[in-house]
Fold these 4 entries.
Entry 1:
Amino acid sequence: MVSMISLLLLSALFVNHLCSATNDTITPNNFLRDGETIVSNGGTFALGFFSPANSQKRYVGIWFNKVSVKTVVWVANRDNPINNSSTGVVKIDDKGSLVIIDGNSSDPVWSTNVSIPIKGLFYKLMESGNLVLYDENRGDFLWQSFDFPTDTFLPGMKLGLNLKLGTSWSFRSWKSPDDPSTGIFTLSMDGTASPEMVIKKASQKIWRSGPWNGQGWNSVPTMRSPNLNYNFMNDPNEIYFSYSVADTSVFSRMVLDYLGLARREIWDENKRQWNTFRSYTDGDCNSYGKCGAFGSCNSNNVQICSCLPGFEFKSSNKESQHCVRKRKLLCGQGDGFLKLEKVKLPDTSNATVHMGWSIKDCEVECMNNCSCTGYSSAYVDGSGCLAWFGDLVDVREFTEGGQELFVRVDAIELENSERHSSLAKKKLVLLCVLIVVGFLIFFSAVYYLCKKARKRGLVHRERLRKEILNSPSSEAYKEANTKFELPIFNLNSVMVATENFSLANKLGEGGFGPVYKGKLPNGCEIAVKRLSKNSGQGVIEFKTEVDLIAKLQHRNLVQIIGCCVEEEEKMLIYEHLPNKSLDFLLFDKTRSTLLDWKVRCDIILGIARGVLYLHQDSRLRIIHRDLKASNILLDDKMNPKISDFGMARIFRGDQCQANTRRVVGTYGYMAPEYAMDGLFSIKSDVFSFGVLLLEIISGKKNSGFYHEDPTMNLINYAWELWKDGRILELVDPSMGTSFPEQEVVRFIKVGILCVQEKAKDRPTMHNVIFMLGNETPIPSLNQPAFVLTSNHNSANASAGSAPSLNEMSITIFEGR
Ligand SMILES: *[C@@H]1O[C@H](CO)[C@@H](O)[C@H](O)[C@H]1NC(C)=O
Ligand SMILES: *[C@@H]1O[C@H](CO)[C@@H](O)[C@H](O)[C@H]1NC(C)=O
Ligand SMILES: *[C@@H]1O[C@H](CO)[C@@H](O)[C@H](O)[C@H]1NC(C)=O
Ligand SMILES: *[C@@H]1O[C@H](CO)[C@@H](O)[C@H](O)[C@H]1NC(C)=O
Ligand SMILES: *[C@@H]1O[C@H](CO)[C@@H](O)[C@H](O)[C@H]1NC(C)=O
Ligand SMILES: *[C@@H]1O[C@H](CO)[C@@H](O)[C@H](O)[C@H]1NC(C)=O
Ligand SMILES: *[C@@H]1O[C@H](CO)[C@@H](O)[C@H](O)[C@H]1NC(C)=O
């Protein structure tokens, strides 16, 4: 492994060393004075002397060379600065160590402490920000700054333990923003049982990540983000966590600041600031052991602390409340386990770990040992066993993510809980019966009244009603008047219709799970969206989707015709549309020739009307939040229909913008304020619509758009063409040459207007439709949003779909 990395680094090194004219190295023959810098080969990092703001002291450090606000990532002599003078020099001494020397003094203020022959040695600043010592005689690295981190965790660095050498890779904060000397906070790996990242203030733990759950850290629920890859290594030689960045044009860092906050940040050159992408340690429940032993913290509750089942607050002293057992636990006398879901697992430092075990083995082990207080699967896939033999400390409840924890409770607690759940079941049954009876009474009443009405000769009015319903402009009427009873399909009939969910019937993989084609006994074709069991979508999200779609009716929205909830299965049944989704036609060279300008224009207008309906015309105000080509289905007449409302959220009319803790959506279509800050509004849908419009006209995907310049995306490309007055070059060649140029240009212009950086510069859907349809002056365009580029297949992945390593959806949890 290590030699692999060395090899890779080596080849990079040689190539650079031979071809490069930049001064990125320090050799025995040259040195670096205060005021001079060396710059890595691609220009990303620089090394030299610096003084922090409000300080006279001189430090040698590495900083981002292309970030316009000096951001230091590493400091060599952090605890031994040169005082108040610019007489410092960096050079290689006669033992091969890189040293910092003040003027003519012979004692270095800092040294890499190596001792080897200096022939063939050089120190080189790599593009990763790593300063390495390379020995041409041995062909190896002998020292690297990545092994001596300060407060910044860069891609390629490690956080962990080198068990072979007994050393660690850990991060120490600065003392203050003006003082890089070793501060009080440490970010390190606790490897005693199941490895966890921890932040300590001096020797006191103040935060822990929870154990590694096979996909991420237990308390950082969705770590996946489009541009980052995570790597966790746990073998007898080393335990470490590291990450890499797919798009290196995005500057990204993780920093432990002088207040002990750990943040992941991305540089925003437009605003000239570091945007916090995720803050790990904010919020009350993040502070270690907030609710004491056997307590549980939930930041959504008014009173954030509660006790685990079987425990209660000791009430004697209100100030120092802590959780104690309600009753003495009589081991082996009817005691057992209660399950908690979506929790941050307790501190594992005294837990036992058995990676090969199943959860059943785990239960047996814990049951048979009276000092065992709880257990859980180690990994989210259900494998491995963690068992606790003492206090359960630092448990949290999440609304999403987390893992299951089984807590040992006494016999009475167990009995009560069982009684509770059976009582709840009984109540549910009773409720259902009441509802059914209610419906029966209601329908017989309706039936009776109708009969009576007909008898009175009101047939005429009924005919009128039918006429209105069938007239083309009756959407609003229908919406207001049609009362649904959404048909519930049973699992069996769905399985028959889809031939047992056969692969041949699979239409694709949408958000939350696969979609199958089916045929009902009456010949009707249906599309069945089978929500994956481990999609993370709960009953509530499912209901949201069903409720929303069932209430909405519009020519440009996919019609839901039923649902199925049975056993573990949750399914939505839609009308089947024969022409598949827009991306299937649009991004294919041959199929896209089916789409001439007339068709594309109608598709764009249809989508616009559908979105307008969601935003404005339906009784609910709905923001779709995942508009993209694969969510636009086409019927046999090529009418577009918007699908996938699972992520839509009901907006009350008085709210125009909301901040969400969870960002869902698809990379490449997300507005910058949504992707970065989780702010969504109807204007973020307008942004996605703009991207979609440009894609429909160009036949190219926004993300994964490769021109000569790989950092270019469709938006940037369109903007460049616009500025150069060559905008018609954007038009998809498959569209042929005969199209009304004026109109196409107007459409593109509206598209660019929709992707403006600032939400307030983007039009509403109402304006969009007006501008598309009329020769009106269009506001002048500004530079559109800088959009993070990402991998080419990103359009297929949708947030909330089953987790996979390549998932491009972005989910950000703030304030965790
Ligand atoms: C290296 O090059 C940069 C700019 O190219 C220059 O500012 C700097 O002084 C040079 N450093 C040395 C040690 O020559
Ligand atoms: C700077 O000053 C501090 C205390 O005033 C002293 O301990 C340290 O040695 C000085 N550093 C140098 C390089 O002279
Ligand atoms: C540092 O240098 C400045 C001017 O060069 C001087 O005014 C100041 O007193 C010096 N401070 C120390 C601590 O030597
Ligand atoms: C360092 O030594 C040089 C000559 O060896 C001398 O000219 C210079 O003044 C000295 N600088 C200091 C700060 O002592
Ligand atoms: C080099 O050795 C000195 C003295 O043992 C030590 O204080 C310093 O931290 C070491 N430097 C590095 C980079 O390890
Ligand atoms: C783990 O055990 C040690 C030693 O008994 C104890 O000091 C510490 O509090 C325990 N940690 C937890 C989380 O229970
Ligand atoms: C229970 O588990 C603890 C911790 O693993 C162990 O020290 C103890 O010997 C076990 N007791 C029994 C009866 O197995």
Entry 2:
Amino acid sequence: MRYLSTRGQAPAQAFCDILLGGLAPDGGLYLPETYPQVPRAELDQWRRLSYAELACAILARLVDDIPAADLKALADKTYTASIFSHCRPGRDATDITPLTTLEPGLHLLELSNGPTLAFKDMAMQLLGNLFEYVLAKRGQEINILGATSGDTGSAAEYAMRGKRGVRVFMLSPHGRMSAFQRAQMYSLQDANIFNIAVRGMFDDCQDIVKAVSNDAAFKARYKIGAVNSINWARVAAQIVYYFKGYFAATQGSDEQVSFAVPSGNFGNICAGHIARMMGLPIRRLILATNENDVLDEFFRTGVYRPRTAQETRVTSSPSMDISKASNFERFVFDLVGRDAAVVRDLWAKVDAGGSFDLRATPYLARLEQFGFVSGSSSHADRLALIRTVWHKYGTMIDTHTADGLKVALEHREAGVPTIVLETAQPAKFAETIREALGREPRRPADLEGIEVLPQRVQVMDADVAAVKAFIAARCGGDN
Ligand SMILES: *Cc1c(COP(=O)(O)O)cnc(C)c1O
């Protein structure tokens, strides 16, 4: 399988060649040259597979430069009950992504049983093992530099901790994360993980990452890389649980289901789109946003208008607080019939700080053909849904999953099972749970009291030179 850039001006590459990089050299995002097709008979066979077996079967269709036996070893090592151990009491952790049925035809797919209690572990844990494998084969190293306001940074650190050839330098805004989030990241004692708390906001952290990455000489000398959500391997790994969820919610492979996906950067639902393109019988992809509704607006109107930093709201589902959706270009590439020249035109506007409008084009009518519908929710909606699910079904959901469920209920159709992706556990967002229910969320036993563990973090001013010096000092000069 070769990978193409959505902007059409970069050479096609193999999976391992794009694994460690970010954007394609022409500024585009990589996608498979064609989507592998999974016929009905194969779906019937896959229905019986374990999560790791299914991951292996799907990845084998997308990766042709890792031998099958190695791919199997990587999937087995990643998708085990000891890593995805944080499931609800009484559930089977060997399921990896257990399905909870709220009522007939309405399900939650639990994607947040990994080490950091958010769905990003599903892909990031595989990425950690893939990185280690490919770096060892090539005799290379990588220094991952990132900025986080919570979920992504901790998922990356738990995936990369102790991995040979990998160091992680993660910037976070000093004093602005919850005590639990700080404890999750800063209590890691692994020698290859470096937490930097920047005196400033998340945007200051992100600006430093950009400044360091724009210094081509520094970037090359210190082998600076990223694990952000445009990484193709993350999207690829996420395709697997759409298949797993489909099998869990259906009896036979002629049935259809719809998925509701709490969305921010469009990474999660992009995997659903690709699963559908591969032939998984998905009727609708229900995209849910919070008050930061740039994507909902697009799917309702055909206008894509990224927001400014000032327009971006801080909400109680913070992992969906985005101003633009970095993976969205992948979907638009398919929407415009894979015409890279059209994508280049549209993103020339976006990259210049503007917007685009598909209303007068034939593409708008195709949105339905791709199965997309959308909606948004508010803080009040989240509180109401968290209460309803708790009182009606005895299940506690987090704020992001509440966004998904709110929009799922608006688009639910009789006779079509609807699967809401549970993207985080309520324990991560205790403050809103207390507001909604007047009680504490359950925290997995092994995470009790992590706030009192010793922490390892360097506090620094928002100063690019200081961050560079910190990295250089830990990478042993000219290597
Ligand atoms: C990252 C995240 C999302 C948004 O996922 P995207 O792939 O960015 O659309 C939703 N919920 C939670 C809990 C997250 O951490």
Entry 3:
Amino acid sequence: MLRRIWTLSNLFLLCDLVKAVPVEQIPLQDSQLQTSRQQSRLHGRFLHISDLHPDPHFKYHSSVAEEEACHRGRGPAGYYGAETTSCDSPFSLINETFRWLDENIKDSVDFVLWTGDSARHDNDELLPRNDAEIKELNEYCVNMFLQVFGDKGILTTPVVPTWGNNDVLPHNIFYPGPNRWTRAFLDIWQPFIPESQRHGFEYGGWFWTEVIPDRLAVLSINSMYFAENNAAVDGCADRTEPGYAQFEWLRIQLALLRKRGMKAIIMGHQAPARTESKSSWDETCWQKYTLWLHQYRDIVVGTVWGHMNIDHFILQDFRDVTIDSISGRTLGDRAAMDDKLTTQGLTDYLTELRELWHDLPSAPKNLGTASKKKKDKFYKEIGGHYGERYSLSLVSPSLVPNYYPTLRIVEYNISGLDSNSAQEKDLGDTPSPYLNSAISEKSFKIPNSPSKSAPPGPAYSPQTFTWLKYAQYYANLTISNNDFTTSGWKEGKHKNEEPASNPQPNPKKLTFEVEYDTADDKVYSMKDLTILSHLKLAETIGQYKSKTGVPEELDGNKRGKKKKKKKHKKKGKRKKHINRVWHAFVRRAFVGAIDDAQLEDQFGGLSLFEE
Ligand SMILES: *[C@@H]1O[C@H](CO)[C@@H](O)[C@H](O)[C@H]1NC(C)=O
Ligand SMILES: *[C@@H]1O[C@H](CO)[C@@H](O)[C@H](O)[C@H]1NC(C)=O
Ligand SMILES: *[C@@H]1O[C@H](CO)[C@@H](O)[C@H](O)[C@H]1NC(C)=O
């Protein structure tokens, strides 16, 4: 059956009913640290840290079995945590991570984005969580941030927190505010929430703050109001829903930032993951988000997320926005993504991502010298020279060692941000032409587009605030825990073992090292982190040959595989390169903690492993 193609982008052409949407007059926001930071030098770097999951019940050398969850019994749980398991983080890991940040990072970052889940999971029937514990664990994390990124309890480097689905009880369930959680966190996050944002925060758990006064704001979203598995709310189409209100808030704030000539980062916990069969957000929220990011593509420099624990990125395609689904007239048929994805679930998810990327427009060979006709066709497909058909979500893996504990340092362009550089002027905007009866003010206001004269935003074309690269750091717990160094910890194999020769833990100092750095990485070889660079990477990851529409590795019997393998050999260099990129992508998804043999099991033959 044909899919409905009545997209909003079509409506651009169809309607000329233009009506200005005034920017609401809102008092200007005070910045978190206006006075203390105005003079300080920028480094062009920020830290993204996610999913700390401190667990006060964690015991080293306890059992990693599901019923024991590193809380009791005897087993291989290490001093700094049990890598490659579902156990949460011991305080030793949290403490040592902040010690490492203190010694290595704190003086070289401009701000910190902390994307939620700062309490343990509810994963032990014998030790159910309670409100007090969740708050205490969050307070513990707040204090660590204050110690490292502050001075005598006052922040000196902005830190921006956001809710995780495990920061409330019961997990995933977040009621419209004000509620006991928004009230509690108003207090717990007091050092981070600007005075002028406190009212809005109590209402919905969202806020924004200026991490570079008058230039760059971070909008912290309450992603639980978008989450498909939050049974207390119902999407973003209905005016009475907090998800609807959050988009109104986002629209108004982004319009205000545009007016002030500022740029914005959006952050949240649960990423807008959406593949053929599964989605983590309600479809109406995903639709609005994709539309909003398109309309504010001159403002939003990037978005960061956590929750999924695997390192990857997501592209939102503006052409997927349709009138019917944005207004909730047709419901998506995707299933809610499980809160805790199993290995199989993750494998399916990454494979589906790859299948999506398989269909991305591909650039003609040697784009620079290709014929004008070919070039034009390609640029038309991707929404112009900068790929403005798409927006990007970067998902960082977690500190909790589901694989290895990990952190990300993103570098961005600060040229033109010297103290005496002039503030960018308001470029204005263009009312959206698609206010027709199908989707009128009765339903919701469509954000204005960038001004026709505005240059493409920093997410699209290299300029001030463009994200240039990131370095993914990880701590090899197998080395630091120092329990299984002779045998080498192959994931899962120790689940019935005990470090018998070592009744006392004998840990080494915890240290983070670079897993990969997008700037000097030979496999990804990314010039920067723009949409175009990610489109190219995704398109390369998505390359495979298939008659059935699924990647060849998962396709068919052994004989078929063998035949195909031979073909690759003949094809030579190019094919090998393609395989390496997908291989690197899945290996990095799991922070290098899963060995190739298991990856091969998970993802099928992969045909990635030929040298
Ligand atoms: C972690 O740090 C806290 C506060 O500094 C301290 O009280 C606690 O004993 C430390 N715990 C571990 C396991 O290092
Ligand atoms: C950084 O931004 C400036 C403009 O502000 C631009 O000229 C320069 O090319 C950018 N640098 C990179 C590496 O993209
Ligand atoms: C971590 O350390 C172990 C033990 O030395 C080693 O076998 C493994 O390859 C290391 N993993 C990574 C990703 O560095």
Entry 4:
Amino acid sequence: MTAKFSVRALAALAIWAIPEAAASVLPATRPPRVGFTDTVTSHVIPMARHDVPGSHDIHLRRRATNVSTSLTNVHDVYYIIDLLVGKEIIPVSIDTGSSDTWMKPDCGLGEGLKGELSGGIVPNVSFGRQYADGTFVEGYFGFEDVTVGGLTAKRQRLGIVNNTYWQGDGRVSGLLGLAYPYMTSLDGPYETQPLYDPVFTTLWKEKLISPMFSIALSRHVDQSPTQSPVDPSLETSYLALGGLPPVSYDEDSWARTPIQDMSTLKAWGITTKEHGLYILTAEAYVYGNANGTFTVTGEGLSRNVSQFPVTIDAGATLTYMPTILAKKLYASFDPPAELIAYGLYYAKCNAKVPQFGVQFGGKIFWMAPEDLLRQSARDPTKEWCRVGVTDSDSIDPILGVTFLNSVVAVFDVEHHEMRFASRTKY
Ligand SMILES: *[C@@H]1O[C@H](CO)[C@@H](O)[C@H](O)[C@H]1NC(C)=O
Ligand SMILES: *[C@@H]1O[C@H](CO)[C@@H](O)[C@H](O)[C@H]1NC(C)=O
Ligand SMILES: *[C@@H]1O[C@H](CO)[C@@H](O)[C@H](O)[C@H]1NC(C)=O
Ligand SMILES: *[C@@H]1O[C@H](CO)[C@@H](O)[C@H](O)[C@H]1NC(C)=O
Ligand SMILES: *[C@@H]1O[C@H](CO)[C@@H](O)[C@H](O)[C@H]1NC(C)=O
């Protein structure tokens, strides 16, 4: 879908249904485009999107010690990138919800790492990470050169995994964690390990790129030059280091919003003002039945302006919203979406899909109908399709792949700011 909409439509929306607090953040006229100097980078890496039907939710965000999680959701999408580790090409999935880069020698997760690490291993320090669904990896740390997008992080610290509960399916051998260094400290019983620089941090500190990266996650499966045949009419997914990916987007839709520090996630019990994850606060969530059309007129739409932290997580397939909000969205499907099993919301595959948008920096970023009702994720009867937003009272709200498929997302760690633009329809 295209999220392009006119200023007049926005104004109409503002007048029609918005509480004063929210109306004030909507621009009456188009704001001047200042401060967006992002340009397309040559350090752009195509990614393959891989869909795993019916697997468990390998929701990749780092688990907080004392937050219990019991997700049995279906995680079925990840984005694969090739890393050159020493002399070996290792396919890994990307994650903006954690910071370690790790890989596992052999064991059903793709090719795996075979050789020795040129930089040796870190003595007496074990590596262990648990992710929000109970999957875990364990092993040790070592050093090796890691090349990605033509850039080499020399003597990069990596996790080498020798024990895991991980839903490998032969395509990937590990993970590229793209969050801040802080997240690497959350290890051991006291979660106070010394920090180290993740791959992306190493690259910008070595001044190989400016301190930002961006992603364009596409809905189409396996579109990458390393896959053949490539259908040029389908969109490729990209990770772009130091600039923007080469996809089309609506120039007028750029918006910026600050990245919040870790103390914002109250349930984690962390008080530090350090940045760790890409935590944002949306100005509003816009949802409701707009008669199945995707022109914003405001008709049938409601706004929820409560402010809660939401994490941008490319390692999560779905978008997780507070239950109250999610239920209102489910009710806006026609016929309404239903709870099939714990945490699993489905609607009839031919249901009329409502609108759902998230507002940052005065702009609304609409989730595409294909992501709100996922035709490729069906129940065994094939009549019910999975809703791309789930309720999340057990974990903090997340904007996952179902949201990211409609935007270019810029992660600017120099200014602790994220920028978004709406992708043009693809
Ligand atoms: C690692 O642990 C072993 C056994 O406790 C110890 O003998 C050795 O000195 C330690 N090495 C380092 C570098 O700390
Ligand atoms: C994994 O690596 C750790 C750290 O080197 C070691 O203590 C452990 O025995 C290894 N486990 C296996 C199964 O090889
Ligand atoms: C988590 O642990 C911290 C530190 O022990 C504590 O302050 C906080 O209340 C705990 N949070 C929950 C949700 O139990
Ligand atoms: C469009 O939606 C509005 C608000 O839900 C409703 O009042 C109206 O009847 C709908 N129109 C059509 C044609 O469905
Ligand atoms: C908006 O969402 C928040 C968070 O779920 C909820 O607490 C609040 O009740 C909602 N407000 C309305 C008007 O739906």
